[in-house]
């Protein structure tokens, strides 16, 4: 039998995951960059009226997501660091991909610049209360938060019904919450995160629109094959990546010799 008092080598509870610290200049600059991206998404969403109404929910969700990240970064919330890193990495990859599709147009270059600044200033921002950041937890939370915008855009795409949206977005939210619990040493967070990742993968695989590769893009002038499928695969892959840092400690704990 295992010693009931023993527990796997999960990270110690992190003080920086809840409280806030005095706002730092890098944090405020990252917040301004996130707010600028939120404003750009709002302009794009408004510009879709009335021809592309079906894409407005997805872009409105991005407006809210970046605004929440901006508010958290401005006040140096611990959770906002990971939300900022995740959304900045996601946006940077998306806009770099856009330059290969439509060329180096101004809006794509501006998106790259804003997300690069957001990423840079979030990285150099001082953690809340000056606490050390566990690298394993930071990696997991960054991946989980990067999966969130993928899930929002994929789940709210007009090709999908509400069941697909609920499965993908709900799964991503579960992964974020579960990884936050793992950062506080809660073993149940591993199983919850696995459930969320599997939910995203199963929903994406069974989504009716997964194989629809030639639907016109909401903004780009040409059809954008595989873009929607790529978002679903990215959401699922990032969710599983968020869980991987915790497999080692759990397996070692379960496989060690039992104590008398």
Q: How are helices and strands ordered from N to C? A: HHHHHHHHH
Count all strands and give the number.
Answer: 0
Count of DSSP-assigned helices: 9
Judging by the overall fold, what is the CATH architecture of the largest domain? Up-down Bundle
Shape: globular
**What share of residues are in beta strands?**
under 5%
* Rg, Å, rounded: 19 Å
Instruction: Characterize the biggest β-sheet.
Output: none
Number of domain units: 2
Q: Overall mean pLDDT score?
A: 81
Helix content: 55-70%
Instruction: Tell me the structural class.
Output: mainly alpha
Task: Give the N-terminus to C-terminus distance in angstroms.
Answer: 7 Å
The CATH class of the largest domain, by name, is Mainly Alpha
Keywords: Membrane, Transmembrane, Transmembrane helix
Transmembrane segments: 29-49, 55-75, 82-101, 107-125, 137-156, 162-183, 190-214, 226-247
Task: Give your account of this protein's structure.
By secondary structure, this protein is mostly helical. It has helices at 25-47, 56-74, 78-102, 106-124, 135-155, 162-183, 188-206, 227-243, 247-255. α5 packs antiparallel against α8 (227-243). The protein is globular and about 65 Å long. The N and C termini lie close together (7 Å). Residues 1-7, 12-20 and 211-215 have low confidence and may be disordered. The chain crosses the membrane at residues 29-49, 55-75, 82-101, 107-125, 137-156, 162-183, 190-214, 226-247.
